[in-house]
Structure formats: C-alpha cells, structure tokens
Give the backbone structure.
Amino acid sequence: MKIPILDKLRSYLFLKILLILGTALFFTIILVMVSHQILIVHMVFPVQQRNSVNYAQYIIKSLGTPPDIQKAQEIVKNEKIQIRWSGPGGEWASSKDLIGFQKLDIPAFPEEKGIYAGFNETGLCIDIKKGEWRYLIILHFKKEGIPYVVGVFAVIVLCSITFILTSIYFAMSWLLKPVRILHDAVRQMGEGNIDVEIATNRNDELGKLTHSFNIMSRKVREMLHARERLLQDVSHELRSPLTRARVALEFLDESNTKTSLMDDIHEMETMIIELLETERLKSQYGGLKLENVNISSMIQGLCSEFKNQEPGIKIVSMAENIFLKIDPKRIQILLRNLLDNALRYSRIGDYPVEISLREKANEITISIQDFGSGIPEQDLPYIFEPFYRVDKSRSKKTGGYGLGLSLCKRIMEAHQGDIEITSKPNVGTTVFLKFKNTGASSNPNKK
Ligand SMILES: Nc1ncnc2c1ncn2[C@@H]1O[C@H](COP(=O)(O)OP(=O)(O)O)[C@@H](O)[C@H]1O
Ligand SMILES: [Mg+2]
C-alpha cells in the first residue's frame, strides 16, 4: 500500500536527515533512561531501601515497647521524620493529617517478612509490624523537593531536546543550502538559461560540487558560443561569393541551367539572411523597431496571402482589434514561417490549418494548428535548433534548411514572448505564440 505523505517525505533529503537525527536522539534518550533504570532502580534503590529499613528499625527500638510518646516527639523534632503507630495502647501519630496505614500502597521489603518500604505520594515510607504493634516511619516527604526536582528535570530535558532539534534544523538547512541553490541552477539551465553561475565560499563536498557545476556551465556556454560564432562567420564569408556568382550568372544566356542555378543561389541567400537575422536578434532587443500594431488585421492579411495553398487556412477565433507593441516586419516573418510549415507539412486531404487569436487578462495567444504529419516525440526537444530537421535525408522536397523555427524562437524571445509546440505524429501540430498583454497592447485609438 502506498501512503502519499510517506512518498512526499521520501523526496526531501532534508527531512530524511532530520528523521535520522531525530531517531538517533530518540534512541539515545531511551538508552539513557534504560541505563538509569538499571543503575538507580535496580542497583542503588535496594541498598537505599535496606539502609532505610535498618534506620527505621533502630528508631523503633529506641522508642521502646510500648512506645514512648515523649521520646517519639523528640526524635520527630531532631531527625525531621514522621512517626505513626497502632497497638494495644491505642493509636498515635506525630501529626494530625499523617497518612493512615490502609492508604500506604508501598512494595514489600524482600529481605524480611512483615516489612513494607518504598515511595508513595507522601514520601519514603517504612511500614513495620512487630508483635502486636505496627509502626510507620516516614523518612522524607515527597512534597518537599522530589516533585520539584522531577519537574525541573523534565523541563531541562524538554528544553534541551527542543534546543538540540532547533540547532540541528538550522545547521542542516545551512549545510544543505548549496543543494537547493544547485537544484535551482540546474533547473534554470534546463530551461535554456545557460548564463547561470553560483557563488560559493564553501570548501566541503557540496562546495566542490558547486565549483564543478560552474566549470560545466562555463564549458557549455563556450561551446554554444563557438558554434554560433562559426555559423555567423561562415554566413558572412559566403555572402560576397554568392553575390558575385549571382551577378556573373545574370550575364549568361537564359537556359534551364541558369534558372536552376539562380533558384539555388536564391535559396542559399535566404538561408544566410535567416542565419544572420537570427544572430542579430540575439543582441539585446535585437534592434527591434517596435510599433503599436493591429495584430488581428495583420493575421487576416497574411491568411489571404496563403489562401490558394492546399489545404487552406481557417480562422476559428479572432479577437478583433488587438494591438501589440511589436516589430511588424519580424512578426510577419515569424507568422509566414509558421503558416508555411503548417501548410507544407499537411498532406493532401488533411483538414485546413486553423488559426486563432485569443486575448486573456495578462496574455495574448496566437495558435496555429495543422492536421498534418506531426513531429515524432523524440524530435520535439530539438525542433528549435538551427538546421534541425525531422527528415534526416534533408531532401529539398520535404522541407527547407531547418532554420525557420530557430529564427521564430529568436523573434519571440526578442519580443519577450514565448513559443511552444505540441505535436503528435499523424494527428497534427499546434504552435502557440504567447505575448504579454501589457498596457502597450491596448488599442491606442480607444484612448
Ligand atoms: N507544422 C509542422 N508539422 C510537422 N513537422 C514540422 C512542422 N513544423 C516544423 N516541422 C518539422 O521541423 C523541422 C524544422 O522546421 P523549420 O525550422 O521551419 O525548417 P524547414 O525549413 O525544414 O521548414 C522541419 O523540417 C519539419 O521536419
Ligand atoms: Mg519552415
């Protein structure tokens, strides 16, 4: 049987360690109590019991038979004890409210018959039968001292345990702080923020782990930067030869070869523009030219641009007159790319691509849904990488260079928005574009 709380407990290292320490403390206390029981109760107490019985017998002897009241009063005064007896001469007690024989409730003294000795509410009592007489000697009173001592002891123990547990709690949370920070940093890195570094001045294992994490994150950063630099440099270097090739081609006579070469050069130029554009957008705000744009009309305009392509585009929900502060050229590139994908990866006979624009209190979402071939689950995490394509043969019939989505992601990031893709093979793909619904997105004409 699974208990949800236990499962939850299992997932906290901090609680586990606390639990281990708590258990250790618990067993330490048990051990102390058991050894106390053995040492005090089983070894010291019998000795004390025997001494007390001897002392009581000595007092009874000095009282004489029948006991002498005057002598008793003297002993009570000097020894600070209490005495009661009963016998043929009647009953006597050193104080009016002294406990009676019938209420004693103390254990029998194992070494001699007719004697009882031990603690009760009143204190250490010795009950001795001698001939026709029965004596009760109370050696010291619990009221004066014992409850107080027990109380103080309990308070000290409780305070110490509370203090120890609180100290352990704070010590542990200090000790495990790097784990929490590391967890946070790893999560951030997983979300794509590779600029994380953790400050630490610890030298223990966790400090070393933090240090290694920093080295790893630096290496990853360097690798990614090197890759991006390479792409950028190659694009730059290809630009001029391509232009020269195009100019040279213009002088050739018209032929099929010329058209085909022109097409290839055009495609490569587009690729280079996309690469460089992606790179440029990475710099802060990427030189965006922000304007208040009616995104509703922009989408409608773009849809009519694509209206002749199979299987067509259907507007399913369109919030009217939504204004967004965006770079219109870049957003058009983005939407064109996504619509192009949706149409390109739909098959003959599939449902038309569905597009919608929805406004929420803090978010404006554009969704583009197709019912085409879809993207396999294992490819989804890489779909925004430059040059990534599902079709590994990279046939020109089934797609482009694989740069479109990486540019789309950069454009959304530059706009501080989000792009998400959900997809299922043979069911279809949906792309969500999420923009913050800030004050800038309201219709300026309304004001
Ligand atoms: N709507 C979609 N349906 C199915 N696959 C898609 C869709 N959009 C993108 N893909 C897959 O993602 C890859 C990368 O897309 P993209 O960056 O736009 O490059 P491409 O130039 O190939 O269209 C595509 O090659 C394709 O395999
Ligand atoms: Mg594309």
In short: The chain has a mean pLDDT of 87. The pocket of magnesium ion (ligand 2) is lined by residues 337, 340-341, 400, 404 (CB under 6 Å). The longest strand covers residues 133-141.
